[in-house]
Amino acid sequence: MAVLKRGIPKQQYMRVDEKVLHWIGVRKPANESPSNLGYQSLLLALSDQMLAVGLCYLIAMYAQVCKVSLYSFYIGAQLGYLSSSVHLCTLLVLKSYFRRHPKQALLRGGLMMLFLGLLVATLILEFITLSEPRDRLFLCGLQYPRLPRLESMGVRCFSIAVMLAFVYWNAFRSIKLDNSLRYELENKTSKNMILQWIYSGGQREVDFRKYLEYKEKDNRQRIRKKAATLEQSPGFWKTFTTVTPLIVAEMAASVLFELLVAIFSFSIALYTLVIGVFYQGADVKPLLTASFGQIMPMLLLMVIALTAVEVGTIKNFRRIEIEVEIKKHPALLHNTTRGGFGPERNGALSSRVQSLNLQNSMMGVTEDFSLQNLAPTYETSFLPIAAASHSQPDLSGTAGFGARVDSMTRWMTPRRRTTIELEEGIRSILPAAESTLDLLDIALRSAKGITYAAICLVLFLLAGYFVACFLFYQRARRPQNENSKASEANTHMMQAMHQFQPAVTSYPR
């Protein structure tokens, strides 16, 4: 809902996101500083609760590992995995929040690493003991197996580790500490921060800066060379190898892709939990009785409901945050403008500049605006309005011949500036090289067929990965169900043999 209702900054939306959202009927434009931040408060509370609950599940289970049955261990592992999946689903909306609070991002990252280690170990142990009867103790089933282990156990454990690593990599992008909200395939911000810390001080820092300048210059030259090659319409293989990394980067940076991976992980966790609870021959009637163990978790859900009610009563979170920041730091108002208030005609404008700079300081945007920068724009006030009228999307109906077409109605075209941006004199967030040399846009013009073939191939491989994960889980659960049915049949047979066994009569001497 936060993605559809534009509750996240527009820097997180890629061109493919705008295209898909336009296809499903979303017409509301994105904003750099969205005012409907109620999603953040609600999902932050849910995220903290799910992270704490999942860690408590796993730690409590390992504390009682000598007394836990295989069935209880399986349910505890799946509950921990479900809590982890719900927690990871909330991080997408909290990306801008963690950028403003880097210490909380570091703490969250440390807890997630602990959670990931416990979860990988738990799921691997669960797969090792998956063929054992569910009523045995966990340690007995682990050390003294009665039935043979599943085939290809090493491959199964490696697949579990790879899947969890991929899911957590997708989530860790939401708590990264760089200033950009976008994800880039060749993003080296973390690497450069580490290298800058290593080579800090003296001549080494100067050499490191020269190295960064050289790498940036070399990167620009490579982009220009690739653009010139694509303009000449090269052969199939040359175009395919050039375009495919660009498509992968566009897909990986997509908000919808990040959301799709999180939802898929949640679906797998819910599916395995339902299979484990209702389709393993266990008696679930005690779970439905009114006891402390069943009532207490349900009462804890009231925290989420109360948070949702509190969030629903507040209309404009952005205005409240600005008022709180002004009360905490009154000097921000004096530092927002550099050129003074100027004449009276710029009085209303100065307040808008102050508000904009204050929002940018809260959101982490390193751009300051002054009345001097806005003066050339407002001296010709008719020009921005006329220019903006050609850059606004036609969202009133279906686009036809002669209608204005925006980036949402064209496949992968650069985003144009809105009316508010032109009036306020906001510069584009993307660098100039990206707006002038868009390799994917050039490929769509010069080699449209090859580019769309590469897009279809990437989508096919992505869908194949999801299907393979689902089939892997379903195949892994099939021997477990067969073994549970076999053990249940053996139990019934033993009871029948016990019932018809003749009684032994003892006579006194």
From TrEMBL:
Keywords: Membrane, Transmembrane, Transmembrane helix. It comes from the Eukaryota. The chain crosses the membrane at residues 42-65, 71-94, 106-128, 153-172, 255-279, 291-309, 450-473. InterPro entries: Elsinochrome_Biosynth-Asso. This is Uncharacterized protein. It comes from Fusarium anthophilum.
